[in-house]
Amino acid sequence: MRVLGIDPGLTRCGVGVVEGDPGRPLSLVDVGVIRTSSDLDVPRRLVTIEKGIDAWLDEYAPDAVAIERIFARSDVSTIMGTVQAAGIAMVCGARRGIPVAQHTPSEVKAAVSGNGRADKDQVTGMVTRILRLDAPPKPADAADALAIAITHLWRGGGQTRVDTARGAAAPTAAAQRWAEALAASKAAGKSATRKRP
Question: Where, in this chain's numbering, is Mg(2+) 2 bound (predicted)?
Fold first, then answer.
């Protein structure tokens, strides 16, 4: 399974692609940051992020997109740009029919380091070890994107497959119920016909 992890941000949007399966070694495919200039207005910055994410989706064709879930903080101006970037990332994945998931910062920290309160250095250190990298990924936004992708592979990937299987089986189950109802209806019609004089 291949996952594009996204650490949303208006100035720096971390992106990282990780490949693997739960219980097996994971590997780094690529990592980077989509940057926007504060000289641009917000709509043009969001278009830059959209084009950047689309380019990553085109190049790496991930099976899923995992994004950090945003929580409100005291600085509303900072959080607004992050939320807008996260929304763009969701749209990019959904437009292509790719499953999109969100993971909280504490889920990511716990999945990668075993401690939901780990600091950035601990998370980056564990990402470096898990992916067997020669050096820690930089900047921090890039390392965070990889941590989000790892979290999805370890925690969310299995659930995505279950949900997909349920979705694929749902029409079959519905068709089965429809066939049973139709057969019962026909049987009731036949018995009613037989009772007529």
Answer: 68
Q: What residues does each domain of the chain span?
A: 2-172
Confidence band for 166, pLDDT divided at 50, 70 and 90: very low
Using the 8-state DSSP alphabet, how is residue 32 labeled?
A: E
The pair of three-digit structure tokens given for residue 67, joined into one six-digit string: 């994004």
pLDDT, residue 37, reads 96
Owner of token pair 């519905």? 174
2-172: CATH topology is Nucleotidyltransferase; domain 5 (3.30.420)
Q: Can you tell me the distance from the alpha carbon of 20 to that of 27, in angstroms, rounded to the nearest whole number?
A: 6
Give yes or no: 134 in active site.
no
| Catalytic-residue membership of 141 | yes
Active site residue 63: no
CA 46 to CA 106: how far, in whole Å?
26
Q: Which two tokens stand for residue 55?
A: 């380019």
Q: Is 68 annotated as a binding residue?
A: yes
Number of Cβ atoms within 10 Å of the Cβ of 122: 15
- Is 58 flagged in the annotation as binding? no
Distance CA 25, CA 127 (A): 12
Catalytic site residue from 41, 59, 68, 134:
68
- Summarize the confidence of residues 116-136 as an average pLDDT: 94
